[in-house]
Design a protein that fits this description.
The chain has 286 residues and is an alpha+beta fold. The protein is built from eight helices and nine strands. The longest helix is centred in the N-terminal third of the chain and has 25 residues, at 46-70. The structure holds zinc ion (ZN) (2 copies). One zinc ion (ZN) binds at residues 31, 33-34, 36, 44-45, 47-48.
């Protein structure tokens, strides 16, 4: 078989069965990760399986981003409005990021060995393993992944690693941070392609409308008094359905209806989103 073993699987998120009736208990297994129903002989349901394979497939590009962040001059959340660079003494390399990348490699080796190295071949467990990206690809395509009796340990290890990775990396240019996952048990920072309508959370697997996530972010910023540049305020408000552009905000400042509360490292004035939002609402209600 030359082709990668990609089992055809139902798309995650559409496979939530309605409450199962108990007629055929012998035909269902229990997902060791989420406790939901799964196919007999499997240890993980299609949804958890899809999420975990998705992480393994995403990791090569996340690793590229982590690599960029080893450089201490890159700044966290660079493209996200509202993050201000703190002046701090630069270190040549970010050791926590390096540690994290090592942890990812260790986890990939452990999973790959679990799936591919026969325990009866002790030399195979010594030092020999394929390059990281190849291991990730092999594991993501392995049909045995969803039959591992100890899958829950691996799943949870990868899940918390994904959280940490997404916390560290800046997002690729085509994607941007849009706000936190509305699931109160999750709350991970979500990213979406520019113009995307819906977004699937890579950690909890739920799907949300981008507009809802943005509105949640807007509320959070209004409540907390966070400040942004005129352009960032306008962009966020527009995404939430308000008519607003940066020039209007600047003209409000000239007319004394709005006062900046500080400036960013580039010297651009920062406005409290709550103030700008207040002006927009006031204008629209007149
Ligand atoms: Zn599951
Ligand atoms: Zn989530």
């Amino acid at each position: 078989m030359n082709e990668q073993t990609n089992e055809s699987q139902p798309t995650p998120n559409q496979t939530q069965p309605a409450q199962t009736n108990q007629n055929k208990p012998a035909l269902a297994g229990v997902c060791l990760v989420c406790g939901g129903e799964c196919a007999v002989g499997d240890t993980m349901c299609a949804r958890c399986d899809g999420l975990m394979r998705g992480w393994l497939r995403e990791y090569p590009s996340w690793l590229d981003s982590l690599h960029e962040f080893l450089d201490s001059t890159a700044h966290y959340g660079g493209r996200q409005p509202g993050r201000v660079n703190l002046p701090s003494a630069p270190t040549p390399i970010r050791l926590p990021v390096l540690d994290h990348m090592q942890a990812i490699e260790d986890a990939a080796i452990a999973l790959w060995r679990r799936l591919y190295a026969p325990p009866a071949m002790p030399w195979a467990t010594c030092d020999v393993h394929p390059p990281l990206v190849d291991m990730l690809r092999a594991c993501a395509g392995s049909p045995r992944l969803r039959r591992m009796p100890d899958i829950a340990d691996f799943y949870h290890e990868w899940e918390s690693m994904v959280r940490k990775t997404l916390d560290i990396i800046d997002v690729p240019p085509a994607k941007h941070g849009i706000g936190r996952c509305p699931n109160p048990l999750c709350g991970v920072e979500l990213t979406a392609a520019v113009g995307a309508v819906s977004v699937a959370c890579p950690v909890c697997g739920n799907t949300y409308l981008v507009a809802d996530v943005r509105l949640g972010f807007l509320r959070e910023c209004v409540r907390s008094g966070r400040a942004f540049t005129a352009g960032e305020c306008a962009e966020l408000l527009r995404e939430c359905g308000f008519q607003c552009n940066a020039n209007t905000i600047r003209s409000w400042r000239k007319r004394g209806r709005l006062q900046p509360v500080g400036e960013n490292v580039k010297g651009q004035p920062l406005y409290r989103l709550s103030d700008v939002h207040g002006q927009v609402v006031r204008r629209d209600s007149i």
